[in-house]
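for the writeup, i need someone to sanity check this before i put it in the appendix. the sequnce is what the collaborator sent (i think, or maybe the updated version? ugh). structure was predicted straight from it, no edits. if anything looks off just tell me and ill rerun, i have time this weekend
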Amino acid sequence: MNEVGLFIYLAGLIIGLGAVTVIDLHGFLGRKSKYWTQATIRTHKVTKPLIWLGITLAIIGGIMFYKNEPFRGIPMYHAIIAGVLILNGFFLSFVISPYLLEKEKEGKDKELLPETMQAKITISFIVSFSCWWSGVYLLAKFITEKIA
């Protein structure tokens, strides 16, 4: 096994999943709370770059870790998950984030988000959280199958 690749992969998963957990919990609490809506808007400025760092490290680490593996099964599933996370990240970075920053700029960051925006964020949360945790599970499965 490639220890350096695995280390970078794990670092990406830890950083990305940690940031996703923080912002998703903030977003969940912000659905009905003006306080948590404002906290979410402010927190996402820190978590967004951490999520991108996590995705980047996970991809680099995954490429290194799986370099001698055929591109099927778990390595292929990880690549698909990375693609979904990137698409989801684009949506969050270029649709949701500008909207939140504009709300803050207008001084409306304590207002609850409209139901339509909350629905989009909820779907994105489900996709994000599912992909990150699936990635962790698949890596654990791959490693345990290799050492068994």
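The mean pLDDT is 94. The radius of gyration is 17 Å.
thx in advance!!
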